[in-house]
Amino acid sequence: MSPRYLLDTNVVSHIMQGRDAGLLARLTTLPVGQVVISSVTLAELEYGLHRKGQPPRLRNALAQVLLRMDVLPWDERVAICYGEFCNGLEARGINLSDFDMMIAAHAVAVDATLVSRDKAFAQVGERLRLEVW
Q1: Band of residue 27 on the pLDDT scale cut at 50, 70, 90
Q2: Diameter over CA atoms, the chain
Q3: DSSP state string for the chain
Q4: pLDDT number for residue 43
Q5: Where are the domains of the chain?
Q6: Which of 9, 49, 54, 126 could be stapled to 44 by a disulfide with Cβ–Cβ 3.0 to 4.6 Å?
Q7: Cα(4)–Cα(6) distance, integer angstroms
Q8: In the predicted model, what is the mean pLDDT of residues 78-106?
Q9: What is the residue-averaged pLDDT of the chain?
Q10: How far apart are CA 97 and CA 120, in angstroms?
Q11: How far apart are CA 77 and CA 52, in angstroms?
Q12: Does position 3 have pLDDT exceeding 90, yes or no?
């Protein structure tokens, strides 16, 4: 079963905070394996935890997320997609942060819908399916 949704870092952060009942309810309606995160997202989350001194509550929240979602590796196929995808965006004058570009390319490469609350992704369009939860 291929993933249906790839969650952006900001959405996973909201899940970890546990204060968005609508988001949590939406997740419970989806079958296991349909919602994944990129290894790039995990890297961003780990960096954030280390910057905050690894508070036990947030470390536990991330562990709970990782129990329920697979982390997809950023592999050669994704890297190749990234090169093509970013080149096309830059040709259109669209520049996102490096991590955002990597996460968007990952969603495109695995044919998943990117779930994000970052308005910057709305300008991408080209091959990226986007939902705001």
Answers
A1: very high
A2: 44
A3: ---SEEE-HHHHHHHHHT--HHHHHHHHTSPTTSEEEEHHHHHHHHHHHHHTT--HHHHHHHHHHHHHSEEE---HHHHHHHHHHHHHHHHTT----HHHHHHHHHHHHTT-EEE---GGGGGT-TT--EE--
A4: 98
A5: 5-131
A6: 9
A7: 7
A8: 95
A9: 94
A10: 9
A11: 33
A12: no
- CA distances to 53, 71, 99, 110, 123 from 7, rounded to whole Å, are 24, 10, 13, 13, 18
Q: Which H/E stretch holds residue 110?
A: none
Fold of 5-131: Rossmann fold (3.40.50)
Do 61 and 18 form a contact (C-beta atoms < 8 A)? Answer: yes
Instruction: Compute the residue count for the chain.
Output: 133
Quote the CA–CA distance of 74 and 60 in Å, as a whole number: 24
Q: Which residue from 108, 103, 133 is spatially nearest to 42, judged by alpha carbons?
A: 103
Q: Do the Cβ atoms of 118 and 14 come closer than 8 Å? A: no
